[in-house]
Amino acid sequence: MSVQYLTLLGCVALWAFGAGALSYNETAWLDFCKDYRVAFERVFTVPKEAAMLNCHLINKHAFDVPNTPYNVTWYDQRTGLEITGEEDGTIIKGASLWFLNSTMEHQGKYLCVVRTPEKCYKQAIVLQVSQPNSRECGRPQTAPQLLKMSVNDNLACPLRDYAEAVDRFSIQWYKGCELLQEGPTFGFMDKNLLLLIRDVSHNEAGLYTCRMTFVLGGVISEVAETIECVISEAVVWRPHMIEPTNEDINIAPGSQFKKQCRVFVHGKDTDHGVTVLWVLNNSFVSQNTLDRIHQTPQNETYVENGFWLESALLFSSVLQDDFNQNFTCVAFNYRESIFSYFRLQPANPDLLLPIGLLLTMLALLLMTGVFLYRAFKVELTLAFRTHCPFFYESTDGDGKVYDAYVVYPRFQGDTSSEAVEIFTLKMLPQVLEGRFGYRLFILGRDSLPGHAVVDVVEDTLSRCRQLLLLYTRTSLCRPEGVEWFERQAGMHRALVEGSLKVVLLELEEVTNPLSLPESVRLLREKQGAVEAWEKKRRWRCWPMCSNQRRTEKDSDLEKPLTFFTLPSRFWREVRYHMPVRGKAKPHSKRNLLLNV
């Protein structure tokens, strides 16, 4: 044996050993993957046709698919080499491995490996490539399907998975070697994936082949499946469509929506053969829950005299394109097919919520306004009078001379009455007359000496716009003197004649209203009194101070009124009750000007 021959033999042996070692190193780590062994379903094809191998590990039973990142890798289990999809005639799309031009060499096991950040899974799938029988036009492997006698029924092409995965496709149906055409006996539905056979008879038994020509990744290929059609004599029950009812449904765009298709089948035969599906634009709606519009699988419920069949159509979000479309529910079996639809219409804007919010806001604004008015009525009124005097009539020409007649208690030797008299003769005129320009009449200050008091009081009250009655807790309990007559005359004009307004100025807290004269008490209950004394806030002291507070209150009642620290609110309320010094012409003068 020559040296050159031995050298060549050694190189070949080293190459074979290196290739085997490389193959082993590439797949050795797969031993740590969870093995789901060989898939039960086999994939059958014939030479020169396509075959699609689906990786069944992408499901919720293996791992949390929606929330876990993963990738899929395919290996030829015979060689241990990874399939990249760059090999001649192979394509990897998603989790599927495609052979677009199958050969006998492609027959074997292919390993699908799914990797996640934490685990990996593997499963073998068997591809079987068989030579077709030259004397038959169908595939060597057939799938049986049952048709009912004497009714309209259909055969379903087993290539629906291919149709959903390719770019575009077309399907032709054959019975034996004869190409089927649309006619009285045969019809095509759902992009030719269903072959409708009318008035089924024994003549329709035999082998049917659906052949698909498709385009995937720019490559044209074919695939076919053969169905063995068997005719059955079983009794078939008629379905009755309950819902939908060819109706229009109003709904707002963007809303989620669900519509049930409900079909009732009379009878007790569990093999009723009724199928319920939703159809849109002559195509069956997908059952993929990730699609915006999808239908749920058919649900069947047995009752005493039949079966309820239901399938729901779900919209994750209603779009503008969905309006005025016919969403049709089809219920069909071997006896007949029934249809019913509904249409979506844009709903009128739901004004109930905006109107409710608006009314609520208006109510809150009204309540807030009422609260603010009640809390700040005096301040708001005084501000409006100051800045908008033209809205009020002028007092000029009303026949009155004084804005108010002041009545106060006059008792000699009474400390409280002395303090009230100082307040009346000094402080009250200083504020109301000196600062705000009101004209006050005070008996003894503004009356001329030597005139009869009764005549002066009667005459002056008729020339005053209102009466200011000042009193303490005890001053009204002694009906005597000039002050008593002034009060009585003023009360008579206010309560009986209604010609004079009386304003009560309560200079000390009256704890017992029953001690007041009846006329004053009634007027106080009706319109209230302007309180010159400061109200005590009870929450300033804890409960343990209750005895001390009661003692202080009793001592305050016994303490004579000798000094006034009048709060600012007192003067605001007094001004609020005083006549308005407006600038608008009186009604009489305006009418006179209009008549000129």
Provide tags for this entry:
5-stranded mixed sheet, alpha+beta, 596 residues, 10 helices, 6-stranded mixed sheet, disordered C terminus, Immunoglobulin-like, 31% strand
Blueprint of the fold:
Layout: H1 3-27, E1 34-38, E2 43-45, E3 51-54, E4 71-76, E5 81-83, E6 90-93, E7 96-99, E8 108-115, E9 120-129, E10 142-148, E11 153-156, H2 160-165, E12 168-175, E13 178-179, E14 186-189, E15 194-197, E16 206-216, E17 219-232, E18 239-243, E19 247-251, E20 257-266, E21 275-280, E22 283-284, E23 293-295, E24 299-303, E25 306-315, E26 327-332, E27 337-346, H3 352-387, E28 404-407, H4 415-435, E29 440-442, H5 453-462, E30 466-471, H6 481-497, E31 501-506, H7 518-527, E32 530-531, H8 546-558, H9 568-577, H10 587-595
Parallel strand pairs: 1-9, 2-9, 10-17, 19-27, 28-29, 28-30, 30-31, 31-32
Antiparallel strand pairs: 3-7, 4-5, 4-8, 6-7, 8-9, 11-15, 12-13, 12-16, 14-15, 16-17, 18-20, 20-25, 21-22, 21-26, 23-25, 24-25, 26-27
- Superfamily (CATH H level) name of the largest domain: Toll/interleukin-1 receptor homology (TIR) domain
Mean pLDDT value: 82
Q: Would you count the extended β strands for me?
A: 32
Q: Regions with pLDDT < 50 over 5+ consecutive residues?
A: 1-25, 536-563, 589-596
Beta fraction: 25-35%
Overall form: rod-shaped
Question: Helical content, roughly?
Answer: 25-40%
Calculate the terminal CA-CA distance, rounded to whole Å.
151 Å
Corresponding CATH architecture of the largest domain: 3-Layer(aba) Sandwich
Number of helices: 10
Structural domains: how many: 5
